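Subject: malate synthase

B.,
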Amino acid sequence: MAGIRADKARDATDGYDGGWVAHPGLVPVAMEEFVKVLGDRPNQIDKQRDDVTVKGRELLEFKPEAPITEAGLRNNINVGIHYLGAWLAGNGCVPIHNLMEDAATAEISRSQVWQWIRSPKGKLEDGRKVSAELVRELIPQELANVKALVGQVAPTYDRAAVIFEQMSTSADFVDFLTLPLYEEV
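Prediction pasted inline below.
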């Protein structure tokens, strides 16, 4: 609880107007921290960062801060399959690798893989290019890892692997990760 309280206090003092919690029982803790900062104001739009100036073209510059590793690529594939499989089984908030994850985490995983495939800078630290073929080679291995972790062989995970492969390797970027999933339920 102390960690959640500290996390929400940081969010509020950083200028956020609200935050995500993993369980409805945590809403009062989060609200308390936001009320301390917001009081009766509806938002913190007045809290601006004049020290930050970003141009549109800068948002499109792909500059990994650290080398892309095979472990990182595998983690993105694993998290994507794990989350999608759980979502298809009816869970929108899923514990993955000791973290409570939602669609945003899986979206980041899928988006990074998609971007790494398309960018000439999408190379692993050992020099291999992240390609659709490499991703397709790793998906069955990560699917097996997810199935071993969840302790079941649910058909949703097999379908999730297919969907993740399609969304991360297709030429077109699907607007949001869960859109193709709605066609499945």
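The longest strand covers residues 94-96.

T.
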